[in-house]
Structure formats: structure tokens, C-alpha cells
TrEMBL record:
Name this polypeptide is given: Beta-phosphoglucomutase
Native source species: Acetivibrio ethanolgignens
Lineage: Bacteria, Bacillati, Bacillota, Clostridia, Eubacteriales
Top-level class of the enzyme under EC nomenclature: isomerase
Record Gene3D superfamilies: HAD superfamily/HAD-like (3.40.50.1000), Putative phosphatase, domain 2 (1.10.150.240)
Keywords: Carbohydrate metabolism, Isomerase, Magnesium, Metal-binding, Phosphoprotein
Co-factor: note: Binds 2 magnesium ions per subunit.
Length: 216
């Protein structure tokens, strides 16, 4: 049996992808870039700066590092206007019950998210206290698929990497887990996340025992 569980935030606990898209869309429109929801799929699981570089690539534009940082900050302010209105009802189905259940069964849990706004989001959802550790974009220097965020999460929980399971909805996150020597559960279909060690549609009616059995 594993001892630690590491959770990505967006797409696993709450779906803020729509808000990221709206914020990036606003920046793209300002720059005259046609940025679609399909383009936005490429931004999942990567850092803010990397995301903006993808937006610029879509539009065939270049700019200085200083300009990029200014636009990234502007995007974040737009995004925060949406996040500050988050409601508990936006927690994805079954995840709160799953987190409470695994805690009762003795697992330690950590957040492993590239978001620098993770604490604000968890606070809005009243989930902050349930996590033993929070490793986010304020504590890391490398973006997924680099394993840094999950390796730090396992270390913070006090476990070896192989004693932890990662829950992810993005290809980069699955790759990061494997690079760190951890098994990864993909939140989504096998066809979308074929690299995952096990796939689940979501956390509704899901029990950790079924996941442990599938991974053994």
C-alpha cells in the first residue's frame, strides 16, 4: 500500500481551465491573436510563462522577456478576478469525499500544482486545511514534465517517491510523476491519457482500495 497521495489542482480538484482560457483569450485578443479553446489545451499543466510563449507561438509573435513578464502579470490579474468569485459548488464531483476518506484511512496528502494561486483557490473552496502539504508554483522553479513538484511533495510528506501516487489530468503531469519514480492515476479516459498507470473518470463513488488494487 502507498502512503502519500499527490494531487494536481486544475482538472483534478476544481476546473479552473475555463477561467485560464478566458484570461488568456483576453490577452490574445489585445495582441490580435486568434486563440481558441483547442489552443488552450496545450496550456494544461505548464507554467504561466510557458503558457504565454505558446500563445505567442499561435499568433506568430515575439517579444522581449520584460514584455512577456508584463503580459503574464496582466493575465494573472484578469484570472484572479474570476478566481476570487469561486464557490464551493465548483469542486469537482466526489473529490471532497475522497480526500476525507483517504485521510481517515491514514494517507497523507499534498497538492502538487504549478499554480501560484493554489492557496487562494483552496481557501475559496474551503479545502486548504485538509492538505498536509501544499507544493505550488511559489515553491518550484521547474514546470512539469520536470518531476520537481512531485519530488518535493513526496519529500514534504516524509515519504520516498515510490511510496506516493500522483493524480493528474494532464500528459505533462503524468510524465512528471513517472520521471520522479511515482505511479500516476489519470483523471480522464485511457485514449486521452494512455501514459497513466490507471485511469478513472473522476472521483464520484471512487475508493482508494480500488486504485491500490489496480496499481499492484
Amino acid at each position: 500500500m502507498h502512503k502519500g497521495l499527490l494531487f494536481d489542482l486544475d482538472g483534478v480538484i476544481v476546473d479552473t481551465a475555463k477561467y485560464h482560457y478566458l484570461a488568456w483569450k483576453e490577452i490574445a485578443d489585445e495582441l490580435g491573436i486568434d486563440f481558441t479553446e483547442q489552443d488552450n489545451e496545450r496550456l494544461k499543466g505548464v507554467s504561466r510563462m510557458q503558457s504565454f510563449e505558446i500563445v505567442l507561438e499561435v499568433g506568430g509573435k515575439t517579444m522581449s522577456r520584460e514584455e512577456k513578464e508584463q503580459y503574464c502579470e496582466k493575465k494573472n490579474e484578469v484570472y484572479l478576478t474570476y478566481i476570487r468569485k469561486l464557490k464551493e459548488s465548483e469542486i469537482l464531483p466526489g473529490i471532497r469525499a475522497f480526500l476525507e476518506d483517504v485521510k481517515e484511512k491514514g494517507y497523507k496528502i499534498a497538492l502538487g500544482s504549478a499554480s501560484k494561486n493554489s492557496r487562494l483557490i483552496l481557501d475559496r473552496l474551503h479545502l486548504t486545511e485538509i492538505f498536509d502539504e501544499i507544493i505550488d508554483g511559489t515553491k518550484t522553479s521547474k514546470a512539469k514534465p520536470d518531476p520537481e513538484i512531485f519530488v518535493l511533495g513526496a519529500k514534504a510528506l516524509g515519504f520516498a517517491c515510490e511510496e506516493c501516487i500522483v493524480f493528474e489530468d494532464a500528459k505533462a503531469g503524468i510524465e512528471a510523476a513517472h520521471a520522479g519514480g511515482m505511479q500516476a492515476v489519470g483523471i480522464g479516459s485511457r485514449s486521452r491519457l494512455p501514459e497513466a498507470d490507471f485511469n478513472i473518470p473522476g472521483f464520484a463513488d471512487m475508493e482508494i482500495e480500488a486504485i491500490e488494487k489496480a496499481l499492484n
